[in-house]
Design goal:
Length: about 190
């Protein structure tokens, strides 16, 4: 079905293009938000990517590559938006688990962990962040990540590795990690 819609979109069918975009927009926005760490800038990047997609859809040679092509446009748009607004003030609210409750299964713990991961992901350089988001969030293999970003596979793998190492180091060095380890030892 997607291939058929992509063929029609390449031929200039606006309805087919709209259907393809409708099936991808939520994931594009979520990935852009993870890469840029800002919902407003993510919307700008996705909008820019979709405009580029409509303008250049006839250049798509392989209709089966629609999603990879669209993700590539989104990542490039994220890079452009990030370059335009390198200095932007961000106010962060750091969540901590409720230490007063003796419950080792504190429901706020998963929220805290997601918050910590999102903060640390945002500290990575955008090229490492993009590789991690494409690989883990969009579930793309390293070869496809490299293709989407227009980089060699080895570069994609090394960015992924460096990013994961940096995340582990940053997260293990936080006070929340020590609290979690104590709770795990007690449980």
């Amino acid at each position: 079905m997607q291939r058929e819609l992509a063929v029609r979109a390449i031929e200039g069918d606006r309805e087919a293009f709209t259907k393809l975009v409708d099936g991808s927009i939520d994931r594009l926005y979520a990935a852009a938000t993870l890469i840029l760490r800002d919902g407003d800038r993510a919307q700008d990047a996705v909008q820019e990517a979709l405009i580029s997609a409509w303008r250049d859809v006839r250049s798509l040679r392989d209709p089966d590559a629609w999603e990879a092509w669209l993700h590539r446009l989104m990542v490039w748009s994220c890079y452009r938006v990030a370059r335009k607004e390198r200095r932007r003030n961000v106010v962060e609210l750091q969540l901590l688990p409720d230490l007063r409750s003796g419950d080792a299964h504190d429901p706020s713990a998963s929220v805290v962990e997601r918050d910590r991961l999102a903060r640390r992901l945002g500290d990575l350089p955008i090229d490492q962040r993009a590789v991690i988001v494409l690989h883990f969030y969009l579930d793309r293999p390293a070869t496809e990540v490299a293709e989407i970003l227009g980089i060699p596979v080895g570069t994609a793998k090394s960015r992924l590795q460096r990013g994961l190492v940096a995340l582990r180091v940053a997260m293990d060095g936080e006070p929340e990690a020590a609290i979690r380890r104590v709770r795990e030892d007690v449980a």
